[in-house]
Design goal:
- The chain has 598 residues and is mostly helical.
- The protein has 22 helices and two strands.
- Among the domains are: 134 residues; 204 residues, no CATH class.
- Helices cover 65% and strands 1% of the residues.
- Strands 1-2 form a two-stranded antiparallel ribbon.
- The longest helix is centred in the first third of the chain and has 32 residues.
């Protein structure tokens, strides 16, 4: 919802004040909770500054209310301000009277209430800014790229704080690497997540995973919907581009489905993982709060296909736990299918249930019922290709570990181990077997699976399953001498074929360039070409599997992996669209001439 203001210059000034105030809020929290050895400013001064910043936010709202052309629209957009201020006033006045009887407790409660208010204000402003940028008429893909970069840099700054680490503070490159890996939901690490990061650092990584997995712009739209604001036509068009949905009317439902579905799936699987930590004594302390945190962390990491684990050896110690295959595997698959596919499956299932009960209880409507909803072509391709890749990947790993391995990894892999690695290699990056001990053939299979990745609109990377299907069926159509690419008795448009070929070629080019660059920078480390290509493929596919060379990379090598993860997450076609969005199509064609290929 856009609000018209009378004085445009005053509004520009308030926007600048908001940006400066939000930056000061962030700086105050960093100085308060950063864990610095020496106080940068006394706590009393910092809490006083936060109280002043709160007053600035309140005065800013009053000025904007008087400057707004339509007061009703302003209250609709900012209805939550009154309940927030009421709760803040009740907390400030009631502390020391109705609750928190001691003076120290009352002061702590007031500081906490002010901090919560400031955080909500900053988050609300960031979310609205992201929506406004996406709906500004320019390329939404640029907004998405800028959002990711801001999120990565902010996360790196937080991870560099002394309180985020258990020992010494992280260097800028290591913090940037970790923040990029978390935001791009990759899972490659240069520091042990469970040992080298404190609880604060782990929470920062978890937040980056969740925001990066679902997209910060989508989170902004969700926040706007939760505040009761209807998306305008331009805002809906921006969300349509970002979510790759076809109908503007579905945007609101799609965003709500993403938010609610994510919370429900992660909550259910958090409960499902809770009992797993007792299977291996000593790994997780017998503390219910820590066990819940481990459950939440790995549930979010699995659904967002991040691959981050709080264990040094990932899930190798838990390879016999049933939760790995009953909870983690379905989580990874659901996260890799894509929200559009999940939305279509839920809609189709609900339609079938409704039709069943209508037939059962309303017999007179049997002949007049509408045509049942059918799965979209996208859903059929994603489900069929995903199933084929899981099964073929599992069989290939089993075969190569049995007949091409020189170690005892074949015994450790087994059917369940091969199944898990086939599922996680395309998306998540967890492992229940030692990757470095696997045969060269199995590693090559994993590289292929990482290159393919998950499905469009999902938290996974890679060229995507639909792209693979289109490329393969293009070759099939050529062999069958058919002019059109056909799948499930439907034709695929030529523009889609062009996009699929472009994405595949760009991914191949990036993979070879990254591998070549790493072979030069890591020459002194003595890594094999197989290990280097595996690392590059894992970064490009945003998977996170590694043969163990990540922490030993040179500084330049880490920067190459950071760049590769960004390209793999945002996608070559997205970057291309961001750079060429405003170009107009050429309105002429050259005469054609036959050429020989093959």
């Amino acid at each position: 919802m856009r609000i018209e203001y009378k004085n445009k210059r005053l509004e520009i000034f308030l926007i600048a004040v908001n940006a400066l105030t939000s930056a000061m809020v962030a700086a105050s929290f960093v100085m308060l909770f950063g864990g610095f050895k020496e106080e940068l400013l006394p706590e009393v001064v910092l809490y006083t500054i936060q109280a002043v910043l709160l007053c600035i936010f309140v005065v800013e709202k009053i000025i904007r209310l008087s400057n707004s052309a339509a007061k009703v629209d302003f209250w609709r957009a900012n209805w939550f301000e009154i309940p927030l201020l009421i709760m803040l006033g009740v907390t400030a006045f009631g502390a020391g009277r109705w609750f928190a009887p001691t003076k120290a407790e009352a002061v702590l409660v007031r500081h906490f209430a002010v901090g919560i208010y400031l955080v909500i204000q900053v988050v609300a402003k960031l979310c609205r800014t992201s929506i406004n940028l996406a709906a500004s008429g320019k390329s939404p893909t640029r907004t998405l790229i800028v959002s990711f970069l801001v999120l990565i840099i902010s996360g790196a700054g937080l991870l560099m704080l002394p309180k985020a680490s258990t020992s010494e503070s992280l260097s800028f490159v290591d913090a940037l690497f970790t923040a990029t890996s978390a935001t791009c939901v990759t899972g490659l690490i240069v520091k042990d997540t469970g040992q080298d990061f404190s609880l604060m650092g782990q929470v920062v990584i978890l937040t980056l995973i969740q925001l990066g997995g679902l997209g910060i712009v989508v989170f902004g739209a969700v926040f706007a919907l939760l505040l009761g604001q209807a998306l305008s036509l331009r805002e809906s068009a921006a969300m349509q581009d970002l979510l790759s949905t076809r109908t503007l009317s579905r945007i609101g439902n799609m965003i709500a489905f993403i938010f609610i579905g994510t919370i429900l799936i992660e909550a259910v699987d958090t409960i499902g993982l809770f009992g797993m930590w007792n299977d291996v004594p000593g790994q997780v302390a017998n503390n219910i709060h820590q066990q819940y945190f481990y459950s939440i962390f790995h549930s979010v990491s699995a659904f967002c296909n991040a691959g981050f684990s709080l264990f040094h050896r990932s899930f190798i110690s838990y390879n016999r736990s049933w939760q790995i295959y009953v909870v983690i595997c379905p989580l990874i698959i659901l996260g890799g299918l894509g929200f559009g596919v999940l939305y279509d499956l839920v809609n189709t299932a609900v339609d079938r249930v409704k039709r069943f009960f209508k037939k059962l209880f309303y017999k007179r409507y049997r002949l007049s019922m509408e045509t049942p909803k059918r799965l979209r072509l996208q859903t059929k391709i994603v489900l069929s290709v995903s199933a084929c890749l899981i099964v073929s990947g599992m069989l290939a790993i089993l075969l190569f570990e049995r007949y091409a391995s020189r170690s005892d990894s074949a015994e450790n892999t087994g059917v369940l181990g091969a199944l898990f690695q086939s599922i996680t290699a395309r998306t998540a990056g967890f492992n229940t077997v030692d990757i470095s001990a696997m045969s060269a053939s199995s590693k090559f299979v994993l590289i292929l699976l990482m290159f393919i990745g998950g499905s469009p609109g999902s938290t996974a990377g890679g060229i995507k399953t639909v792209t693979l299907a289109v490329v393969i069926m293009t070759a099939v159509a050529a062999l069958r001498k058919r002019q059109e690419v056909e799948m499930f008795r439907r034709s695929v448009r030529i523009v889609v074929v062009g996009r699929a070929v472009t994405i595949t070629l760009l991914f191949v080019a990036v993979l070879f360039i990254a591998t070549l660059a790493l072979s030069i920078t890591e020459n002194s480390n003595g890594f094999t070409m197989s290990e280097i290509m595996f690392e590059a493929g894992s970064a490009l596919g945003t998977v996170g599997l590694t043969t163990g060379i990540t922490p030993s990379l040179t500084t330049v090598g880490k920067l190459i992996i950071i760049t590769t993860m960004l390209i793999g997450r945002l996608g070559p076609l997205t970057l291309l669209a961001a750079l060429t969005f405003d170009l107009k199509p050429v309105r002429y064609n050259y005469p054609d001439e036959a050429v020989i290929v093959g």
